[in-house]
Design a protein that fits this description.
The chain is of the alpha+beta class. Helix content is 29%, strand content 35%. The protein is built from 3 helices and 5 strands, in the order βββααβαβ. The protein has helices spanning 35-44, 50-58, 74-79, and strands spanning 2-10, 13-20, 27-32, 67-71, 83-84. A 5-stranded antiparallel β-sheet has the order 4-1-2-3-5. The radius of gyration is 12 Å and the shape is globular.
């Protein structure tokens, strides 16, 4: 499925929100307490490119949050801890 994904900071780390057509309007979210682990998983799932991963390493969440597009199977998101909300 084609998805959109946004990464935003939380009190204890980062939240990643993914949504796409096949979720029937639903969204999936996963929390991370470590930026490096988050970036590694997103890159391994091909939710972000290697270039985007390098940029996310130093991204400062001051006035915006990064938004990405990618293709991923919903089962893959489920298998990696992205829960339906």
């Amino acid at each position: 499925m084609t998805t959109k994904m946004i990464v935003f900071p939380s009190d204890d780390g980062f939240n990643v929100l993914v949504w796409g057509k096949s979720t029937g309007g639903g969204m999936r979210v996963r929390s991370f307490d470590n930026r490096t682990i988050m970036i590694s998983l997103l890159e391994n799932l091909r939710l972000i490119t290697p270039q985007a991963a390098r940029e996310l390493e130093t991204f400062e969440f001051l006035d915006s949050c990064p938004l990405y597009s990618s293709d991923v199977e919903e089962a893959t998101l489920d298998a990696h801890g992205f829960r339906l909300v």
